[in-house]
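User: My instructor asked us to take a sequence, write out its structure as tokens, and then describe one feature of it. I'm not sure where to start. Here is the sequence I was given:
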Amino acid sequence: MSEFIPPAKPIIGDEERAAVDRVMRSGMIAQGPEVATFEEEFSAHFVPGRPSVAVNSGTSGLHLGLLAAGVGAGDEVIVPSFTFAATGNSVALAGGTPVFVDIEPETFTLDPAAVAAAITPKTKAIMPVHLYGHPARMRELEAIAAEHGVALYEDAAQAHGASLDGRPVGSFGEFAMFSLYPTKNMTSGEGGMVTTATAELARRVKLLRNQGMERQYENEVIGFNTRMTDIHAAIGRVQLTKVDAWTAQRQANAAFLDAHLQGVIVPPVLEGAVHVYHQYTVRVQDDRDGFVAALKQEHNVGAGVYYPIPNHRLPSLAPYAPGLELPETERAASEVVSLPVHPSLSQDDLERIVAAVNAVAGAGA
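Assistant: Let's start with the prediction itself. The structure tokens for your sequence are:
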């Protein structure tokens, strides 16, 4: 059988290894000049005019962003249930209440009508997730936030370089979080980046990541140790120089899959949206799990299911959503399959993926 095609594959090259070596030789390993430069370069690349703050993970980024924005006990933050648990977890960790609402089926992101219906006097903010690399419906969500006087935050963990109407994700909310986990569109080995609308909000995130202090031993607030190291920042800086080419390859791979797949529902792209295809997520309406198993067993093609259990059904987060019914979320959780789209795929790989999907879909899995 042909070699296995993995659903995701981190790309770490000689340049990244050389950058780590350079930092190791410098003796400055913890947070230092590499982190500061990475923050400046990340802002310039993805969200010009907005300060960025590097942290040790995407989850830390969400948590500190929420705390810096003033979310606490008694505050409700509207979030999707169809996402990684970190979205809801971060609201709970900040002391707030995650309010789960349904998604709309095209983009797998927050349904604006459901968001509007969920707003109460306790609503502090709306936090959409730009899922799989496609921007959420920010036009409508901005209007709802303005109408009700609530804040807008962004979970952009999977959406480096995505945009809507020419505006990059990360530039809509008071803050946004980008993940730098190994399988994301770019990585720092592990880490996250918080982009903020104001310098003051960035300063608060910086205080929170560093034990509450800007100057050593002058602790201003109760804080954490969620700093990024210079080693990780050095990797991220190299990856910043490559991410645009990788994104273009992801988009080309997705276009090939769009044109040739049969028997599955390929991911639509909204007018005015730039999709960066962190995942290429199709819907399989009959026996999704059998479909995934057949791809691997019969064709050695890997696929991922993100996310089979919605957040409002998880034992950890279900107490925030007693009796909640989210039909589009449940349907997506039972139908989605993410096919390989990463930039390491060869033309032969793409043709194998197409042949495998079309064969399995045609056989009814």
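For the description part of your assignment, you could build on this observation: The first helix runs from residue 14 to 26. Try explaining in your own words what that tells you about the chain.
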